[in-house]
Design a protein that fits this description.
The chain is of the alpha/beta class. The chain folds into two domains: about 100 residues, Enolase-like, N-terminal domain (Enolase-like, domain 1); about 240 residues, TIM Barrel, CATH 3.20.20. Helices cover about 35% and strands about 15% of the residues. The chain contains twelve helices and twelve strands. The strands form two sheets. Strands 4, 5, 6, 7, 8, 9, 10, 11 and 12 form a nine-stranded mixed β-sheet that branches. Strands 1-2-3 form a three-stranded antiparallel β-sheet, with helices on both faces. Helix 9 packs parallel to helix 10. It is globular and about 65 Å long.
Length: about 375
């Protein structure tokens, strides 16, 4: 029986945490965790949890997941991302050992290719048309943008008009040929969220994302009752239990589990299956590094209600490095006509450049989240 023999964790700028899990048969698997603003906390948690599984059978993924999840004080984003990273690496090991892509172990392919969208505009949206033109020229037919920077509880309609004008400029340039997702990013409080959602509705967004913070989930229904635009949420939720109220409420149309936070590949698959039972679409969140994106493609491949996938090549957060810098088989992230082929390689289908990872890891991690204030000095959501 194969056993987990050791592990190593890499902190890689600009904002990635990789874990490599080794076995006594020489097969290794890669996982990825979210750094955010608590990198050292995540790394400490990963060391503590990974130490517990040394000597165990890496094929027993569900047993290991349950053992690591079911503590008396459970849950939370730190535990969620650590569990996700470890689970990713175990699937990578199992797929490599059996010489099949992971999606073959999750039911087999349900599609031939995966539609993707690209980010434009940055945190404080600007140069929207130029960014959209760049993506159009590269074959993308779907983009997503932040709606706005910070907004107070009640704020200026001038800011609302600015958002509408930005989105309208894309419509004027590309018509309906370019799908546009609009991310409120939880920056908009309920009073202005209603106003902004209503103002954007005539421009036919692909969806509006996180119109309010997930802790204010009761207001999804109110916004849903006022506009026909599909509502998306889920990037900050972890495990299927975190999504349970979203499904019961019935106001959200698209769930966006993050494979590096929600519990990993199988948990993402379970969340997607729950969504399918409620006639909801899935658009997985994946703005981080190469392992998380490769893992997400595996779930996309075998999940029929995934309709589009976020991709993180060249995303504005990854300043200084692109995720391709750490990957040997770069072809798995090649997009054509807004689609990517389902991966064919064993495991997660990704070959990491560990020498490059080691070199960059020695340079230290530099990522910190921005800190924003409203016009009156009160703390704003980022």
């Amino acid at each position: 029986m194969m056993k987990i023999s050791s592990y190593v964790i890499y902190k890689v700028k600009p904002r990635w945490i990789f874990i490599k899990i080794n076995t006594d048969e020489g097969i290794s698997g890669w996982g990825e965790m979210v750094s955010g603003t608590k990198t050292e906390t995540v790394v400490a948690g990963a060391k503590e949890m990974a130490t517990k599984i040394v000597g165990q059978d890496p094929f027993e993924i569900e047993r290991i997941w349950q053992r690591l999840h079911r503590s008396f004080f459970r849950g939370g984003p730190i535990n969620g991302t650590v569990l996700s990273g470890i689970e990713m690496a175990l699937w990578d090991i199992k797929g490599k050992a059996l010489n099949v892509p992971v999606y073959e172990l999750l039911g087999g392919a349900a599609r031939d290719k995966i539609k993707v969208y690209s980010w434009i505009g940055g945190d404080r949206p600007s140069d929207i048309v130029a960014n959209a033109q760049d993506r159009w020229d590269r074959g993308f037919r779907a983009v997503k943008m932040n709606a706005t920077a910070e907004l107070h509880y009640i704020d200026s309609y001038e800011k609302i008009d600015a958002v509408v004008n930005r989105v309208a400029s894309i419509r004027e340039k590309f018509g309906s040929a370019m799908a546009v997702g609009i991310d409120f990013h939880g920056r908009v409080h309920k009073p202005m969220a209603k106003v902004l959602a209503k103002a954007l509705e005539p421009l036919h967004p692909m969806f509006i994302e996180e119109p309010v913070l997930p802790e204010n989930e009761e207001y999804f229904a109110q916004i849903s009752n006022e506009v026909s635009t599909p509502i998306a949420t889920g990037e900050r939720l972890y495990t299927r239990w975190g999504f349970k109220n979203i499904f019961k409420q019935g106001a959200v149309d698209i769930v966006q589990p993050d494979i590096a936070l929600c519990g990993g590949l199988l948990e993402t698959s379970k969340i997607a299956a729950m969504a399918e039972a409620f006639d909801m679409a899935v658009a997985p969140h994946a703005p981080y590094g190469p392992v998380a994106l490769a893992a997400t493609f595996q779930v996309d491949a075998c999940t029929p209600n995934v309709f589009i996938q976020e991709q993180s090549l060249g995303i504005h957060y990854n300043k200084g490095f692109d995720l391709l810098d750490f990957v040997k088989n770069k072809e798995i992230f090649q997009y054509k006509d807004s689609f990517v082929d389902i991966p064919k390689g064993a495991g997660l289908g990704i070959e990491m450049d560990e020498d490059k990872i080691k070199d960059v890891a020695q340079q230290g991690l530099v990522w910190t989240n921005p800190a924003w204030e409203n016009y009156d000095g009160t703390i704003a959501e980022w």
